[in-house]
Amino acid sequence: MRNFLLLSVILVCSFITKAQVSESDRSIALQLVQKNSSVISINQQDIDNSIITATYIIPGSEIRMVYLQQSYKNIPVYNQLHVLAFKNEKLVSTAGSRIGTIEKKISNDRSTPAVTAVDAVQTAGIESKVKIQEMIIPASILRGGQKFEFG
Fold it and tell me: Distance (Å, rounded) from C-alpha 77 to C-alpha 109?
């Protein structure tokens, strides 16, 4: 049982490490997006409101893939992803789209959520029919209060 737990922890850590985009790769991808912004049909504000979720070179080719997710106030916009392929620093393929003028479409522009993280965990426990036997307190609060970790 301990060996299985240890293996599980190692696998999770390796996946988390692999999922992170290095600063150098992020910088290369951002330069490619900025250089080809007119072809992609995005402006600097769109680029500033984007997150590079992944980038890599396809093995055996010179094609760099860039996954550019739309964001609003550093919050990822669900299902709004540009998948871009570059070869020799030129865009060769694009898929996906963005929600145009998203700031005008948001009716309640507030930066705090309507439900607290503790209330969300408590509601999830109730919905899952899990009996919570102790007070819910975040184990850590990260990114200036934007990310909560519970034990």
Answer: 14
